[in-house]
Amino acid sequence: MNIPFVKDKLLSLVILISVLIGVSLAFATWNINFWPTDTEDYYIEAARNLPNLKYISQMHESLDQTRVVWLHGKEGYILTASWMQRLMNDVTTLRPFVVVNIIAVVLSAILIFLIIRNYWGLKVGFICWFLFATSFWPYIYILFAKHQSLGLCFFLVAVGLLHLSDRKWGKGFLVLSGLSLCFSIYTSTASSLYLLYYIGALIWQVYTAQHKEGDPEFFFSFLFAGFLSLVGFSLAFIYFNYPNIVYNVKSYLEYVEISGQYNHFFYNQPVLQQWISTYPMNNVRGGWLWVFKYFFLIMPVVFPVFLLCHIYLIRKCIQQRSQRLWFGTVAILGLGWSSPILAQLRGVAQYGANYFPSFVGIIVVIGYSIFVYLSLYDPQSLKDSKSYWTTKIVGTSILIFHVILNNYVFLSDIYPTRMVTTFLSNAIEKLGVQEIYTYRRHPQRKNVVDYLNPGLVKKLKFIAINHIYEPTQGYILVPPITGNSIYIAATSDYNDFDQDIFLNELVHKGNMNDYAVASFKTLAASRIWPQEEEILSYRYLILNQLSADIMEKGKVWLLDVQKLRQDMKKNFPPQEDFWLVSNEIKNIGTKRLVYIYKGNQINIRSPGTLKKLATRIYKVGQPKDSLRAFVYRVDTEQTVWVPYNEHFVSELVEAGEITNDSNGQIVQFNFTQPLPLSPGPYYFVIYRTGKRSDQDFYRIYKNQVAILDY
After folding, report:
1. Is 232 helix (H, G, I), strand (E, B) or coil?
2. What is this structure's pTM?
3. Nearest Cα to 615, choosing from 684, 681, 665?
């Protein structure tokens, strides 16, 4: 039996290593638990119900209407995962989705080698495969159980099928190519950014085929090839939208519009107003600065090399003065930048998954640069050249550094923080306990406590506590303390969990490790995972608000109760903290993120007018900035807080006008335009205008807030 790839040793090596990586990941993630992610919230149920539907588009009707929009543009992912669910006989866990993503990444790696090899030869294909297979970016979406991996795979299959279009039954491959492209777009909403890549590949395929055959009619050949591809695309398009094609397309477009108008910034405006002055909030973007900073973070070696390739290619174009080289360079660089440019033009939310299609274009630019370097010299003179050997040594060193750095980030950050509930479950099982103490109302309880290994949860009793000294023996599970967490980013107040005055003091003194039998970094302690959520990514990359303190508080802890109680006096809070808690006094503008003023919700019972907001405030130290108040109402379309109107910000109250007396004084915040208030809920919050400080800040009596001239 003649098996072509067996004769191709390099291809065999590529397949072997890619498969080994996939198998290793399958074993390493077999007991992966939920975050919960979108996959658990929306996709598992849809995939489970899919075999009962007559048409695939009916999945949009099978879930309640508040969740239906999230399925548009992911139909191919849900369909593929549904097949895997039945194959694995597993309709409840993440495993079928993770396995689908693993297979997608393995196939994508092999296809990158085959496609680049077809363009620029074995060496270039191997290097491009190597860069992809050893970068941590693709593996994030395996652990995330998201659709980007499969969207990439279907796109690469579409390009691979183009390469077969000059063979027997070539026209049929063009139809299949278009069909696979449509599957890509209906698998991941980010896949629309591959369209220019695909058009470029189609142009090149037609051009090379015409060049071989000596046929000058490129334009008509391209139109014909495009038409056949469009036929395949249309078949898949009808499949995904039939029988209510117009309605489903309209719903998809509405989803795209909604995702642009109602991003995470929009849903959390009162909290974000302390850092961001943009109004309306849903227009907040980091722009190209975010793109460059994110690419340097997510591709720490590949992206700098990509930028250096620009310098090399432009230099060679100037030196060679070749129109062919200029044309090829401009075309490849244009395609390399097309995905982030399109993302910017479309105004997509700036988090990692939406920019993943850029990875392929960046690798292609690097591959083309290597091809240009190799093609400018004949093989013998190249091998005899000192610069060639220098380049080879430098290039090999870069690849080695790339592997070391990407493996370090993956193994020290991405993988362990994603698998934290599995590791935590193993630690609890080793303790051999039947009960664990934890907080009932901790905002991140669901993401950590409720998603331990299912077998452990069934036999473990969770006992609710209010503070760490309630139990007399056993172990306390403390979820991440920081509010800077991807788990809850869209609704977080971004302050620390401060409902336990004794835990607060333990954290403040830095003594948590003294009483921990185990601790693990979670997603909240990661540098990489927060980039998959737009608010955190903006705050970390644009506002530079990521700190070692946040990452330390992002751990999950198992504390020994007996050790805690032995040192109770040592870690007892100061009387001032008890006084603050008992009098409902909150801090404004401190670096220490406990007892922070989060605002007041006031229900208005009869119509009136807001001219002033009065509250009791005092200052600590000598702050030199100001305070201002903000007014929010409930949005008419979404149940979230939005600015009352363009006059929702009060005039400034200077620090010099505020007393240092801890009894406080009544401070009035004046509004330049009176705000008519109809009956209903309103939200009021006060922020300082200067930087946070633990020496110079403000305090407010939370329960003493009143509307004047109402």
Report:
1. helix
2. 0.94
3. 665
